[in-house]
From TrEMBL:
Protein name in UniProt: Phage holin family protein
Family annotation (InterPro entries): Phage_holin_4_2
Organismal lineage: Bacteria, Candidatus Uhriibacteriota
Keywords: Membrane, Transmembrane, Transmembrane helix
Protein's UniProt keywords contain tRNA-binding: no
Length: 116
């Protein structure tokens, strides 16, 4: 149930980001659902490998390079999913920041609901 909740929240967040960030677009809610699914899979499968490969850079930047990797993952997913467009690194970076904040909120909500 938590997985479906996170998936829906991330899809809604993608639609929100599309309305806020210029150069970032999601055509339909269905596209947002597919993009959220592919982004989740990419973050689960590809991102850990990239984090290990870029560990020295991450250490030098005190972990801030992780935001760059998140932006690159968003940009990468936009090349896979039709109707999901990112027109450069800056929109991808801004989208990754907003999605990170949404993820923090989602984690807090789930943790708070489990404690109650």
């Amino acid at each position: 149930m938590k997985l479906i909740f996170r998936w829906l929240i991330n899809a809604i967040a993608l639609l929100l980001v599309a309305n806020i960030v210029p150069g970032f677009g999601v055509s339909t809610f269905y596209t947002a659902l597919i993009a959220a699914l592919v982004l989740g899979l990419a973050n689960a499968l590809i991102r850990p490998i990239l984090l290990v490969l870029t560990l020295p850079i991450n250490i030098l930047t005190l972990g801030l390079f992780t935001f760059v990797l998140n932006a690159l993952m968003v940009w990468f997913v936009s090349t896979i999913v039709n109707g999901f467009t990112v027109e450069g690194f800056v929109p991808a970076f801004l989208a990754a920041l907003i999605l990170w904040v949404v993820s923090l909120g989602t984690n807090w909500l789930i943790r708070h609901a489990e404690e109650s």
